[in-house]
Hints:
Largest sheet: none
Keywords: Coiled coil
GO biological process, one term: signal transduction
Helix content: over 70%
Protein name: HAMP domain-containing protein
Oligomer: single chain
Number of helices: 7
Organism: Anaeromyxobacter diazotrophicus
Amino acid sequence: MRKAFDANVPKFRPRLKTAVAPAGEAGTAAETAAPAAEVTAAPLPGPLPAARGEGDLGEVAHPSSTRKGEGDLSPEDRTPENPPSPPAGERAGRGGSTTREPAPPAQPALAFSEPPDVESRRERLLAVKRKVAAAVRPAPPMPALPETPARAGESALLLVKDFEAQLTRAREVETALRADLDDARAELARGASEGRRAVERLAAVEQQLEEKRSVLAEMLDELSALEEERDGAVARAQALSALDEERQALLDAVTARAEQAERARAEGEAELGRLGAELDERAADLARLRAALAQVTRERDDLSRELGEARRERDELAEARRALEQVHEALATARARLG
């Protein structure tokens, strides 16, 4: 690359400025390095929407490349190449056309639900458009050209590096655009597949409708059969009503018999009441007899107690008698000993 630059430097020398003050060499070098720093520090534009196509790459790279190439040309050569800047209204209109939202796609015949990431992708595309609009704005005027061939060579090297960086960014933008195009194609394929699925669902619904119609016809046939069964049921109901009349007659007979049984039960209850009264009288007599028996039992207990006391007194008297006899015997024995 250095050899190619050395070979091309004599071609640019006639166009370089020769009348530059020696005192402005330092400022000129700083001004020459400033555009390169601005290009290097400029943020990379984001991926552009797929709808813009490859033609936008030239729009992105053209203004900066044109401005960078002006450094190697004389004022006479730059004059026809730089058109007058458009007025502010025209630039605003151009920026508005750049940031204009894409026209909504034609809606398919059947309503499909949009994927959840469509809104986020749309916002991202709008942000990319704003970045592109900011990138294509006119740059400030270029600084003065370098005064020596060496400085011009350095400036050319910086421009080459800038061009390479711009080419790299353009390739990245192209890759992003191709990725967006692939995404759009994939979304289109998904939409087509969803349309086919909707048509298939419509065919399935029509088939289900035909099946339901056949089922409805079968239900009508069954309804006719049910009406015939209803007529038979009415005839059976009439027969059952006749049977109910016979059953009612039997019920009347059974009711008469039940009344007779009720009267017999009432008579039995009256007899049972009489027997209960007699039983109560017998119970009262039994209670009186039990009271008399209790009185006799108490008297017997009293007599038994008195008899026990008498026996106890008799035993005490017998013991006293034996003691007295012993005393007499002892006195007799003592008298005999003394006598």
